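Q: Structure for this?
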Amino acid sequence: ALFTAAANMAKSKFDYVRNFETDDTCLRNCYIVVRLDGRNFHKFAEQHSFTKPNDDRALELMTRSARSVMEELEDIVIAYGQSDEFSFVFKRTSTWFKRRASKLMTHVASQFSSSYVFYWKEFFGEQPLLYPPGFDGRVVLYPSNRNLRDYLSWRQADCHINNMYNTVFWTLVQSGGLSTTQAEDRLKGTLAADKNEILFSEFNINYNTEAPGHRKGTTLIWEKRDEISTKRTTLPGGEEADVAVTRSRRRVHAHRCDIIGEAFWAEHPDILEGDHC
Amino acid sequence: ALFTAAANMAKSKFDYVRNFETDDTCLRNCYIVVRLDGRNFHKFAEQHSFTKPNDDRALELMTRSARSVMEELEDIVIAYGQSDEFSFVFKRTSTWFKRRASKLMTHVASQFSSSYVFYWKEFFGEQPLLYPPGFDGRVVLYPSNRNLRDYLSWRQADCHINNMYNTVFWTLVQSGGLSTTQAEDRLKGTLAADKNEILFSEFNINYNTEAPGHRKGTTLIWEKRDEISTKRTTLPGGEEADVAVTRSRRRVHAHRCDIIGEAFWAEHPDILEGDHC
Amino acid sequence: ALFTAAANMAKSKFDYVRNFETDDTCLRNCYIVVRLDGRNFHKFAEQHSFTKPNDDRALELMTRSARSVMEELEDIVIAYGQSDEFSFVFKRTSTWFKRRASKLMTHVASQFSSSYVFYWKEFFGEQPLLYPPGFDGRVVLYPSNRNLRDYLSWRQADCHINNMYNTVFWTLVQSGGLSTTQAEDRLKGTLAADKNEILFSEFNINYNTEAPGHRKGTTLIWEKRDEISTKRTTLPGGEEADVAVTRSRRRVHAHRCDIIGEAFWAEHPDILEGDHC
Amino acid sequence: ALFTAAANMAKSKFDYVRNFETDDTCLRNCYIVVRLDGRNFHKFAEQHSFTKPNDDRALELMTRSARSVMEELEDIVIAYGQSDEFSFVFKRTSTWFKRRASKLMTHVASQFSSSYVFYWKEFFGEQPLLYPPGFDGRVVLYPSNRNLRDYLSWRQADCHINNMYNTVFWTLVQSGGLSTTQAEDRLKGTLAADKNEILFSEFNINYNTEAPGHRKGTTLIWEKRDEISTKRTTLPGGEEADVAVTRSRRRVHAHRCDIIGEAFWAEHPDILEGDHC
């Protein structure tokens, strides 16, 4: 009892340490972007025998985990992923967790990471996950729609450049019989046009018809779509029947298309809020 | 090819968005504390039928995940956990990830969360994990050893107060036959002494002999201990034999003791660096 | 000599303290507003016998000091002042002092304060300045033109409300013979309409024709205007003559008009940069 | 009246812009250092014909302004100045202006700057101040006494190195008849010992007996000293007489001594608070 009274007093005596926490509220009226990057994923990919240059199971697991983040957290309007990274965009007027940067980024990092392990089996089946993977995150603010779109364009341009390089590189190795060192030398100093040419003339591959998900990455947005389900109902006459019911549902949908140009944004005018507020 | 050249240009055109990232370096010569808290763990505990007031499987899984964080990340000198929270202390001279707050807290949140799912089965066996759990994090800096110890004392005093309340509350419900509302009423306004008295006189429970891990939480530190292993060796005479080999190894060890008083710190003088630097 | 060698060594030994400085770069593409407020200006006004409710000498000295800030510092596109406060707006694309908040706000505070003392005599003549006054400052970022205009509107609405109150209050005291306490009581709970009515029916004052500088505060902007000067020139015939020379010069000009509505901004379309960047 | 009602509404409509202000509270239990630097003081010194290498009037004006800052603001325990810079140290437990960095640094910059102009005449007499000078500031936090002392040592070592260089340089020019370019060449690559040697063997100057204020800079601290004043009193017998009254008064005192070593700190044990809190 004495100790407990002491503990109560102690607690109030120690309470002052709370004041060392600092406020990290994100500036209002800015988009809040949280980007995650896999930690040591080069090694992780090796150890889990990921297919080169793209492992569809791994990419789909990334997408599945990102979807879990969008569904569990509030106010994420768009997410974009490629390779071992994923960016999540909170709407500019979000007040989730009072816009505290630390809360937003740790929630994203945590939900993504636990989902990655949780859904592993769905994509890798019996192949075991050898150890718990790590992702680090950061927060960046963008004050205008232009800035945000340029951010997403930057990531998609990065995806394009890396994927083209990797596609040619691994084609040279896997189909061309080059060693990795030879492939590297071969590509040194080549321009994009040269890489396209190698693929086409030597391996008869048209880069532009490669899987969109590899070339463009994955963009997740919320969309309202009609969904038809059947429902067992009792008809006026008393018989039972299956009736088709159409319901509009808001769900996360994946796109593998260009998001640099205008078309995507014209088709989805609700993703961004106006600059005029 | 044209598109690719455009993409390269585009990338450098979009590059400017990098400059919107701001620096969040933690002040030097301060302890960096990252505290994680379970998100909606009240509901999570219900849905996974956690034992009240303490579920040892859940507590051990928390500890296992925290150990994974200490082992995989750099420079964590002590960690303290209770209930659904865990605090990690980076040494004051750490330069890991250039002391960037966002990197440190997301790494901790990510590694802890993926480990929680990864090691679930070790503690819950066949009981399935229903969905990926979330943890949020924050960073707090402490400039002096006194401040850091007061922070840890604050968390342990919190553990004590909550655990005493929960112990009496659930004893009244589980052994005393009270409803949760009745138990709540019974405890309204009681002091620590009263709670001790209820436990002792009505249920013959001495609170001070309850499990230390419940009363004190879990403290993880690095310790060098001698470990003895047997090694098959060929003896001079040519026969094979098992020989005991003693090796000093630095490992994470768990303590369930008081960390408010001086004793623990006197026994482990290497945890804290001096204030005089 | 020994000591000096030691000093050099010492300096490099102490150099590490530089790393404790933290980066306080302002988010790009946002307007940077620095607002100054007079410290204890109520007392300062008393001690220097400022006229109530507005002292034109003091207001003009504020404006003179603000003009000095705009002329000496870079990238300030508009400034707005009223009473003992002045706000300075750096353009959203400014890179002056790498957008470091501390540099911007201390430069403004310093230049304003030294100017206030330096120009005192120009406005107060032989009345001595009794002690050096202080102004504190703060930095606020605004991501959109709307936000910035709302900020300026907020300050001008504040000017309006305070000035109307002060005008009626001091009229009641100075012309109505009320004590300050009586005037305060009289105004308790009155709406704007009531105040207008008191002025008009009791003192025959039309608030809307009061000095614009008192009702609207002072807005400073850069404007290019033609300036005509005379220059002594030798004519072809050999005689000397004064010739009028017109030169377009960019100078800081003061306005005392409404800046809440659209008109001011339509007339000066160059103050704000577009949101679409 | 209508407009006024609108203004009230407007004000509350615009009020939201307050929330864009961010919190910049300084971490508790750290020393808060504000350092000011003269803006373009090289040019300022030229234009005001400052004596080379040190102008005592200018140095004393800096000190006078710093004293004004210490007296007008709260919680500054020590200040150190040299050349055109001055550092102010707020005690680690200060809660002045809630430890908001922007408030502290703008107050210092403002008070110093207005004082510099205000007290100019005291030191420069009839020589006019040509324009209002500017000073910029920054805030740096130091968590330990060691860090703070190393900061001050860093500034004093800087003073020493610069002053020695300037002393030799201007001696070569003023007494040695060298041009500034020749003096620069002569000093290129010289060590401290060489500079001492030049002064001593060529100009018979012992650097160590140069004015302490030039070699060591100026340190300001609060000290309680007995002050004797005379007071006219009526004696018991009825006559009037001057009586000496001793009163202990806390004032800012200037020191021009070494603050790198232990002696100064041992003599003034009250400047720093303990690390053990």
